[in-house]
Amino acid sequence: MTELSATISSGDKAQTVLSSGKSYRKLAMPDLQWTPALEREMRPLYEKLANVIPSVEWPFHAPYIKAINDLKKERNAVILAHNYMTPEIFHGVADFMGDSLQLAQQAARVEADVIIQCGVHFMAETSKLLSPQKTVLIPDMDAGCSLASSITGADLRAMRAAYPGVPVVSYVNTSADVKAETDICCTSSNAVQVVESLGTDRVIFVPDEYLASYVQSQTDVQLIVWKGHCEVHERFTGEELRAYREADPSVKIIAHPECPPDVLAEADFTGSTAKMIDWVKTNEPPRVVMVTECSMADNVAAETPNVNFVRPCNLCPYMKRISLPKILDSLLEMKDEVVIDPMIAEKARRSVERMINLKS
Ligand code: 13P
Ligand code: SF4
């Protein structure tokens, strides 16, 4: 990865200069001691999280949460956190939480100077596309996504050439290169609406084969698909869900549309991460299996004490690269900056804005 920032010193005023030319004062490492005063200050937050964060871990998290929340003000920064972040991030330091669509909508309207994207790289790129004048940082540049890495801009150009005149819908889980070859993006929460908005009989739909299969079950538009998969959701099986139901016929099963068709066939509800959360909060089922990345059940459990979560635990290794110490480093060092080639950004932005501007 290219190092895009530099540090310059004049007297005691060290500055970090980013590739955008913006310069930021270097900040001193805050005190991360666990003290009785901090314990008292952070107690209300811990009471909310006690059922999802073991008490032995709290003295490690709490000083970071305090330091990050203080530094955010100093940097005029906001933290956008995906629903898959761990509870200490999601409930401790995030300013806005949500699914990919909600995070993109927030990125387009937040007023801060700096966005820290607690999620994966394609989400940070989407924020940068929608807020080009802001500094967008991701705490770990290697937070990728198996769907985003399954297809390149060149792959999509070849597909377009094979189906001349057929419009392209790309899932936001793609690189800016792919978005630049795309007519309109979609997320798991609006994919059917986006496909139907084009008014054509056929649509090229990339890169998630299983999301495509779900969308195909909801529309008459014929989808031409790419065979990318989410490495987290493709591991669930219909068989394991049937076993949960046999053990407790009253259990509710709700699933993300990146799951294979035999998994969705067992689901009582299918939707984006935000829609899954709304469903649990609205319906408060006594027992539920959330068939998705497993930090999300922890985040919802902290707010729904009456719901018992059955937890098949598939972790996204990319989402889990984001941690409190790395978020603190981002704020201190202003890294890692998300930069997109301006020629690609201009084309990619159109496909994301077209989605954002779609009336629901
Ligand atoms: P959502 O848009 O539903 O949050 O999904 C993003 C994602 O990466 C799911 O794996
Ligand atoms: Fe990508 Fe799957 Fe991880 Fe979401 S859960 S970021 S789709 S690998």
Please give a quick description of this structure.
The protein contains 15 helices and 15 strands. It is an alpha/beta fold and 360 residues long. Helix 2 runs parallel beside helix 14 and helix 4 runs parallel beside helix 5.
Question: What does this protein look like?
Answer:
The protein has 15 helices and 15 strands. The chain has 3 domains: 6-143 and 319-333, NadA-like (Rossmann fold, 3-Layer(aba) Sandwich), CATH 3.40.50.10800; 148-230, NadA-like (Rossmann fold), CATH 3.40.50.10800; 233-310, NadA-like (Rossmann fold). The strands form 4 sheets. It has a 4-stranded parallel sheet, with helices on both faces. Strands 9-8-10-11 form a 4-stranded parallel sheet, with helices on both faces. Helix 11 (261-264) links the parallel strand 12 and strand 13 (269-270). Helix content is 40%, strand content 16%. The mean pLDDT is 95. It has helices spanning 36-49, 58-75, 87-90, 100-109, 121-130, 153-162, 176-180, 191-197, 209-216, 238-247, 261-264, 273-283, 295-301, 324-333, 342-356; strands at residues 6-8, 15-17, 23-25, 77-82, 96-98, 114-118, 135-137, 168-171, 184-186, 202-206, 222-225, 252-255, 269-270, 287-291, 308-310. The protein is of the alpha/beta class and 360 residues long. It is flat. The structure holds 1,3-dihydroxyacetonephosphate (13P) and iron/sulfur cluster (SF4).
